[in-house]
Amino acid sequence: MSIKAKLFHAGIKLDKYLAGSLIFCRASLAQAETVFFPGCSLMSYSPEHVKRVQALIAGKYKSCGVLTGCCAKPLKLMRDANFNNYINKVIKRLDALGAKRVITACPNCFNILKAYGDTKIEIISLWNLIAEDLDVTLGENLRGSCKGLGFAL
Q1: How confident is the model at residue 21 (pLDDT cuts 50, 70, 90)?
Q2: Cα angle at 38 between 62 and 138, to 5 degrees?
Q3: Which CATH number is associated with domain 3-142?
Q4: For 21, phi and psi rounded to 5 degrees?
Q5: Which residue has the higher pLDDT, 145 or 57?
Q6: Which of 121, 96, 93, 125 is nearest to 109 (CA)?
Q7: Left if phi > 0, otherwise alpha if psi is -120 to 50, otherwise beta: which for 148?
Q8: Residues 34-75: pLDDT tens digits?
Q9: Percentage of the chain surpassing pLDDT 70?
Q10: For residues 123 and 114, is the Cβ–Cβ distance under 8 A?
Q11: What is the DSSP string of the chain?
Q12: Bridge partners of residue 34, in order along the sequence
């Protein structure tokens, strides 16, 4: 492996270590049956969007907590031995919250939590929830330049 690749992998490992630490991985409530797990991309892109989505979800369910953090998919792709430790910490935090359902905004988080998460916790894609249950209209400003798609985020 080249030095450049080694430095890149070291940077990813440091990022995941910090993203999973209690400094950055926070829960908004002490207990919550429904937890929104936005993933690292949406959380870093727009914390305001996370708050708005949480409010929408709380309108459907009794309450909704938010657990910030990362699902560690980059560690899994690198076949890093720390992946299992990392995802187990996320699962323990969800268990400590008393989560019965987790709503993910990120498809990677959805797949990782589905594959490695607690089977007693229902994992729901935010996009399926929007399509099926939430009264949300996607405005014209969300339309992308992709031909053939009704909208792109």
Answers
A1: very low
A2: 80
A3: 3.40.50
A4: -75, 160
A5: 57
A6: 125
A7: left
A8: 999 999 888 878 888 888 888 889 888 888 889 988 888 888
A9: 69
A10: yes
A11: --HHHHHHHHHHHHHHHHHHSTTT--BSSS--SEEEE-HHHHHHH-HHHHHHHHHHHHHHSS--EEB-S---HHHHHTT-THHHHHHHHHHHHHHHHT-SEEEESSHHHHHHHHHHS-TTSEEEEHHHHHHHT------GGG--S-TT-S---
A12: 101
Residue whose entry in the numeric block shows the structure tokens 């996009």: 127
Token duo for residue 151 = 């909208």
Domain boundary assignment for the chain: 3-142
- What's the pLDDT at 134? 60
